Amino acid sequence: MGNYIRFDWMIKRLLRNKRNHVVLEGFLSVLINRQIKITQVLESEGNQDSDQQKFNRVDLLVEDDKKEKFLIEVQNDHEIDFFHRMAFGAAKIIADYMKIGEAYETLPKVYSVNIVYFSLGQGKGYAYHGTTVFKNMFNEHDELRLTPAQQSKFGVDEVHGIFPEYYILRVNKFNDEIRQPLQEWISFLKTGDIPEAFSAQGLKEAREILRVDSLSEEDRKVYKRYLESVSLALSLDDSSRYEGYCDGHINGLAEGRAEGRAEGRAEGEHSEKLETAKRMKTDGMPIDVISKYTQLSIDEIAKL
Q1: 251, 270, 274: which is closest to 261 by C-alpha?
Q2: Are 69 and 111 in contact (CB under 8 A)?
């Protein structure tokens, strides 16, 4: 366990305390490139108090002083349809927070911030930003823009200011080159360390708030179980066959899967899963959770 609490566990468990908002405000301000002030933490499916509820998935929904919504999600294990999940999440927020009969101009601005620890899609970078732009189908240099009257009424300069915006940080792809505040934040997300030289907004407060030794004994035990759960989810991830295709290259593991495993190896892996399931069961984890991350049947686990 490192000196600092993982950011995903922090936003899952500690951010309901307003004292800790300064850390997330710093991160969002650096990412969005404008000052963000969080006014409230809203209810979302990942705002669960128990570490057994979606412990490999974290999402946090907050609102700032402009009534704009920020959906922050952290994903530790591979999801091939994660792009679809991003689209659904942003659409659901709009649907949930726009009341029937309200004028469309009250549509909430949504930022979908996604921190992933796997190779999502194909690309050479680690930080991506996506907006909605309308291009003339017969003139690539022509873009549909707002009129001055629309700009004045809606308070935005461009069409993309109305639609959801998406941020994706592929943390494991970070090349450790640090020249900007956002790169300091991504380094922290990747390594869990905050060197004294780091000065990005929010990281100074994070050094104090996110110290593992500042946790209560109970929280420290819960956090340790969370780290074990994340580690297990990553080690049992069966989707690496997809990750081998990143940037057009197939790694040896993917080739091995494509050719099929030898029977003896399969039996060995099954035995290893049984041993893992035994340990999880001894630690009191629910059978359905054990089944999800070991791919063993509920009947098999019940007999252990």
Answers
A1: 270
A2: yes
- With H, G, I as helix, E, B as strand and everything else as coil, classify residue 131: coil
Q: Is residue 192 left, alpha or beta, with left meaning phi > 0 and alpha meaning psi from -120 to 50? A: left
3-state secondary structure of 147: coil
> How do strand 135-136 and strand 127-130 relate by DSSP bridges?
unpaired
Residue 187 amino acid letter: S
**55-65, pLDDT tens digit by residue?**
445 578 889 99
Give 24-79 as a DSSP string.
HHHHHHHHHTS---EEEEEP-TT--SSTTSSTTEEEEEEEETTS-EEEEEEE-S--
Residue listed under structure tokens 């921190």: 115
| Contact predicate 83/111, CB 8 Å | no
Q: What six digits make up the tokens of 171?
A: 């943390």
For the chain, percent of residues with pLDDT exceeding 90: 42
Residue 38: count of CB within 10 angstroms of its CB: 18
The bridge status of strand 69-75 relative to strand 110-116 is parallel
Whether the Cβ atoms of residue 114 and residue 163 lie closer than 8 Å to each other: no
Residue written as token pair 């040896």: 252
Question: For residue 163, which amino acid is it?
Answer: F
At which residue do the structure tokens 């020249």 appear? 179
- Angular region, 31: left φ>0, alpha ψ -120 to 50, beta rest: alpha
Band (256; pLDDT cuts 50, 70, 90): very low
Are 290 and 301 in contact by the 8 Å Cβ rule? The answer is: yes
Query: 101's torsion region: left (phi>0), alpha (psi -120 to 50) or beta?
Result: left
